[in-house]
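SEVERITY: medium
COMPONENT: batch folding queue
REPORTER: lab tech (J.R.)

DESCRIPTION
The queue accepted two submissions in a row. Attaching both inputs and their returned structure tokens so the on-call engineer can compare them side by side.

ATTACHMENT 1
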Amino acid sequence: MKPNALLLIAPMALAAACRDAGPPQAAPAAVPPGSAASAPAAPSASAVALASAVAPASAVALASAAALASATAAFVPQKVTGEGHAMGTHLSFAAFTTPALDAAHVQALFSRATDEIVRLEKLMTTWDPASEISQVNAAAGKHGIAVSPETFDVVRESLHASAISEGTFDITFETLHGLWKFDQDLDPHPPTAAQVRDRVRYLGWSHVKLDEATRTIALDEAHVRIGLGGIAKGYAVDRASKVLADGGVATFFVQAGGDLFTKGVKPDGNPWIAGIRDPRGPDSDYFAMMPVNDHAFSTAGDYERSYMVDGKRYHHIIDPRTGYPATASRSVTIWAPTAFVADELDDAVFILGPQKGLALVESIDGVGAVIVDAHDKVWTSKRLEGHVQMVHPPTDAP
């Protein structure tokens, strides 16, 4: 599966990077609301006298409107950026100020958005024994655990993703924890076939039982464990984006590792531009670019948390049907209306491969995909045709 976004691992390199279109411009200083520069200028005494002699009420109104227009025209939006760390990955924010929202207010909203992601991490991580997911795992084979509406909804959506993807998205991948070591415990020694067989027999999303009436989650087998590392980060990006939007920010992006959501177009009218990393190139190399407006963008790749043994690549995206790393793709980028949807689909499409993966993508409204398959061929879904700009072919390497 995807890197466990809930594990406290070293921040992974960004798989989807927001870039400004065109050459970078120096950001002008912000003009805080209410300052002398932003307040309407008072009409001159002679202007008021002349206006009063002709049509007092309308003339003064026109003078005030002209002053307000002049003050508004003088405002130049400032780009504000922020960073953080949560869910085991690096957080990035960018937004533009408005006449009503200065840089300090935007930074404060970035902090609130980070706090929201941290709050969700505490509910859904598997690293904290007090989290709701950890409690569900501790009660496996015994009884259900009542959880918050948010945790319940994320698990319910996870099961829906399993149902539509032939089980390739499966939160019971956590049952394999400790068998494959790609996190801080990186160990370039694959498990034995017997060890994989012993664990994989307990995998399967059908082991997860939901009770809508009591909002409880139960695991019907004592060996089964669940983890939300392949979906919770997308949900958190959407929630952080809502914090910014509710706070009055009209143009921004929120990024957590490979999960990105953008809102609005930049003040110069240009869209946000996202890059798709070359699976076998350097960390900062993007083989394709595309605009992303009011949409999410999520990438899953076999180049993160991986190792090579005898010329074969082993990586963290595990096919739950076999218990081994998936082999049909090198990277999958999903374009979707929400980061939640994008996050749940990228691993599934990665495991399914280009033919079945694109069929799944095309069946869902507002979703597109760019796939680099195991043979380095690029596949683009119909909805993204004409929108993806190739920079260079992906690098061909093991």
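ATTACHMENT 2
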Amino acid sequence: MAAPLDGIRVVDFSRVLAGPFCAKTLQDLGAQVTKIEPPRGDVSRVAAPINANGVSGYYAQQNAGKRNLSIDLNKSDAREIAYRLCDQADVLVENFRPGTLASFGFGYDSLKARNPRLIYVSISGYGQGGPWRGRMAYAPTVQAEVGFTHHSLRHFGNNLKAPQTDALSHADVYAGMEAAIAVLAALHQRERTGEGQHIDVAMAATLMAVNEHAHMDLNNLDPGDDPPILGATDGSFFEGPDGEQFMSAISLVNTITFTWFLAAMRRPDLIDDPRFRSSALRRSNIDALKYIVQQWIWTFPDMASLDAQFDEAKIAIGEVRSMDQVAESEWADYWGATYRVPDRQGGEFRLPARPWKFSGAQFDQPGAPSEQGEQNTDICHELGFSDDDIARMQANGSLVDNFTAKMIAMVSAQLDARQAQYGEHSDEKPA
């Protein structure tokens, strides 16, 4: 059985996260992805932490299994390589600032004239046009611009000593996912029309679309003292019978869900407790309410029996686990939630596996992350270039070898030299 996107060829001009995540998703579905890197490489190749072999896990997670072509688009020979590759492609993914690829002759209109079936997806902060078109866009700043950060700050209120955001790049990942969905739709439409098209994906619009509470702010709906009945951060944290940290998915404050806790604890009397008669009172007395629930939790012999009692009352709970802990769980073993790829230097990376299973498709495991320019020669041969052509392009800088590895090795050598220089004098510090 073939994978769903078997035979689909993707050219990935993108770097870091949003675009690479989109292309990775297409590859996970069976597409062949060729990543094009500039001479200095994708900056995520040097994203810490780098393992003992000098390889970035961040890069590996988004790019394992992609073929790699490293070229300098300032060179005419390099542009010819890229043109030939795009002529054969089904999909092109890019996440540069709007207009960047067009300045090299690789805008949608130029490539459409050569390959009308090409599906060209552009991911940017605020779209390919409009007043914010040229703004720099990183996940934290886009999240701040479109209400995502405001929603979190409003929720946590005085619980934060200073404003802060979480560590995950929601705007990048969600935009990459929406871009992949759009590509699949465009491929389906192409089956009917025979024509490709340009897909414009804005991180800002994506975050507005995935915000399930947007309807509240857009329509000035004030829940008052009652938090939304469905809210990912409205649950409470508790300690399990054996010291486990876990959280409930629903609020102790909300008028409806409060009664679910009473049902689970068999404590209908608490509904008449003067401290808990309204959502405002429960909020002001939340510590006392949580204490009562916590004492009840400790009457159970283990998490399994506690979970069964909560389940009866339709209250979902989840233990707080680290990634390595969940990877060792029975569920992860059943799902095959992780896989391992070599780092090309004698080690390996453990990475998240595909998030879906197909009954009628078969998937190969992604290969190792390619080194920068690793498939330069193979790809050029496929595109009809001779050995003499390839040698000429290597000599004139159109084809680029593993610049990133050389840079990492140079920095590592400098650090080792500095360590050796100052290691004998513990009271001296490098400037």
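NOTES FROM REPORTER
The mean pLDDT is 90.
No errors were logged for either attachment.
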